[in-house]
Amino acid sequence: MIFISDIHHGLDSLSTLPKDKGPLVILGDLINWIDYRNGEGIAKDVFGEENVNELMNLEKNMIFLKEKKCGNNYFQKIGN
Q1: Nearest-angstrom CA–CA distance, 56 and 64
Q2: Structure pTM?
Q3: How far lies 7's CA from each of 12, 13, 19, 26, 80, in Å?
Q4: Which end of the chain has the smaller Cβ count within 10 Å, N or C?
């Protein structure tokens, strides 16, 4: 499964995504993945409140590489 967000008008780039990685989920303003004000959203339902709190703290403190790594680890856990 591939999750992407904030593509805005970059639809042409979607054709470069791998075709063999499962469904494509495009996140945007119409989906509440993580509401950084209160932690609500789909990610909380999928990963749990503790994990979303960790992602929010990393985002708040601009530790983006670790945030990305944690998010990837959470996805791998639900994929197995």
Answers
A1: 10
A2: 0.61
A3: 10, 9, 18, 8, 28
A4: C
**For the segment 62-77, what is each residue's pLDDT rounded down to a tens digit?**
999 999 999 999 989 9
Q: How many CA atoms lie within 13 A of 6 on its CB side?
A: 1
Q: Which two tokens stand for residue 39?
A: 């932690």
Q: Which residue has the tokens 């990610």?
A: 43
Q: Which string of b and e fits 21-52 if b means at least 16 CB within 10 Å?
A: eeeeeebeeeeebbeeeeeeeebbeebeeebb
pLDDT, tens digit, 9 for 90 and up, residues 18-37: 889 888 888 765 567 888 88
Paired strand residues for 4: 26
Using one digit for the tens of pLDDT, what is the confidence trace for 46-56?
999 999 999 99
Query: Hey, what amino acid is at 7?
Result: I
Domain boundaries, the chain: 1-31, 32-80
